[in-house]
Amino acid sequence: MRILIVEDEVRLAATLQDLLELNGYTADVCHDGEAGLDNALTGIYDLIILDVMLPKKDGFTVLAQLRQAENATPVLMLTARSEVSDRVEGLDRGADYYLTKPFEPRELLACIRALTRRQPELHTADTLEFGDLTLDKSAFTLSCGGRSVRLSRKEFDMCELLMRNRQVVLTKETLLLKLWGYESDAEDNNVEVYISFLRKKLTHLRSQVRIKTIRMVGYCLEYESS
Ligand code: CA
User: Residue 9 Cα, ligand 1 centroid: separation in angstroms?
Assistant: First the structure.
């Protein structure tokens, strides 16, 4: 699960990022409202943590523009101000939750769990199936028949994306953004490397599922039962 943190207090942003990553999330950071909005609009995030007081564009404006663009990503707003009017404004503009700084890490994590649970397609079960494959989201394993392999974090994330999107073609750019994020130096080549790791594992599992390459476009899963 990928979370975008839009927070101009650099130390707080870094602390949040560490906290989220320690708890199994992938987190990207932006330090101003404009960059935050641009990144949020990519649609690759499962949740956005948005500060109110931000340079270039304040959090309320970012939120309003995000919702105007029909982006429904859950938004958790953060602020140092605790006035009731701010809370009302945030909620009126489509924030899903409001947290006042300073807050307890436990409280933040509980909020994140609650907000991401609202998207039923993201958290319906511990397993995801496609063709003869079963991806176990708690054990990080991919199985087929009686065989099973453990996946690395990136392999798992890539496999999950491919399985969730079924026969949709995922471009290299989408995979790169979803798996490595905006700020990273990762290149198309990384996608190819992990696709080849996954293909080796599919072969090892003797799965009938193939990762099909659509030239110049991207990848999709294909299942041919014999
Ligand atoms: Ca701020």
Answer: 6
Domain assignments of the chain as residue spans, ordered by start:
2-122, 127-223
Proportion of the chain above pLDDT 70, given as a percent: 89
What is the third-level CATH fold of 127-223?
Arc Repressor Mutant, subunit A (1.10.10)
Laid out side by side, the sheet with 209-214 consists of 170-171, 218-223, 209-214
Q: How far is the CA of 101 from the centre of ligand 1 (A)?
A: 10
Rounded CA-CA distance 219/62 in Å is 33
Cα 173 to ligand 1 centroid, rounded to whole Å: 31
Q: How far, in Å, is the centroid of ligand 1 from the Cα of 50?
A: 9
Phi, psi (deg, nearest 5) at residue 134:
-130, 125
Of 3.40.640.10, 3.40.50.2300, 3.40.50.2000, 3.40.50.150, the CATH number of 2-122 is: 3.40.50.2300
Q: 0.70 exceeded by the pTM?
A: no
| Runs of H (alpha helix) within 25-152 | 33-40, 59-68, 84-92, 105-117
The 10s digit of each residue's pLDDT in 108-127 is 998 898 888 755 444 456 88
From 203, 197, 135, select the one nearest 165 (Cα to Cα). 135
Q: How far apart are CA 16 and CA 113, in angstroms?
A: 15
